[in-house]
Write a structure and sequence with these properties.
This protein is about 40% helix and about 20% strand. The chain is α/β, with parallel strands linked by helices and about 220 residues long. A nine-stranded mixed beta sheet has the order 3-4-2-1-5-6-7-8-9, sandwiched between helices. The protein is globular, with a radius of gyration of 17 Å.
Length: about 220
């Protein structure tokens, strides 16, 4: 039976490369499309939509309720079962100085990148544990960023490290810091991580660093 995988976000070169590689590996995939609540929500973004990278499901990271709804829609789109969640997190590289930021922008960044992704992972881990198992891979893209992007990246790294300390029974969690800049190679590494658990799976892995293509 084919494994089913949900990747996020749509429109990312890394996600597109991963979906292509996942198909080759025999997986059925869907992707989360980031939207905002209210009238600005993208039209036609639902579980029945077909695009270049497969089925798309809307997710608003500013809404906790949206995480659960997105996972339910993804399960439906994938035939009633979801086995894996793969997140490619690439916070903005905006270099606006701290004095140029508004309180609203700071709050939105915290809610989206810290609370939003934490809630998506929590909901997925909860559903995986309830149905007897599942895998979550969090990929954090390494880049030079301004205050907000750096804060978002730090929050995601801290979340990964915390999940290694206090994991969820029956849920396998892996995290990769991508330093490669090569979506195709990263996609293959993520598939390998899903299929062949590393002996160092309880640590944040580095992929594509200068000292070696895969290291710690």
């Amino acid at each position: 039976m084919k494994k089913t995988t949900l990747a996020v976000p749509s429109g990312s070169l890394r996600v597109s490369a991963f979906v292509t590689e996942a198909r080759v590996a025999g997986r059925k995939t869907a992707v989360l499309h980031l939207v905002e609540a209210g009238p600005e929500k993208a039209e036609g973004a639902d579980a029945n939509q077909q695009d270049a990278v497969e089925l798309t499901v809307p997710w608003n990271p500013l809404s906790f309720a949206s995480a659960r709804a997105a996972l339910l829609e993804a399960e439906t789109a994938l035939g009633g079962v979801l086995d894996e969640l793969v997140i490619f997190a690439d916070p903005p590289s905006d270099v606006t100085g701290i004095t140029g930021l508004t309180p609203r922008t700071i709050e939105r960044t915290v809610l989206e990148w810290a609370a939003g992704y934490a809630e998506l992972i929590r909901e997925a881990a909860k559903r995986f544990a309830e149905r007897g198992g599942g895998s979550i891979v969090l990929v954090i893209v390494q880049a030079e960023r301004g205050p907000l992007g750096a804060m978002a990246s730090g929050a995601l790294t801290g979340l990964a490290e915390g999940l290694f300390v206090a994991g969820t029974p029956l849920v396998r969690f892996s995290a990769i810091r991508d330093e490669s800049g090569q979506p195709d190679l990263l996609a293959r590494q993520v598939i390998k991580t899903l299929d062949e658990p590393s002996r160092d799976s309880g640590k944040l892995q580095r992929f594509g660093n200068r000292s070696g293509f895969f290291g710690r």
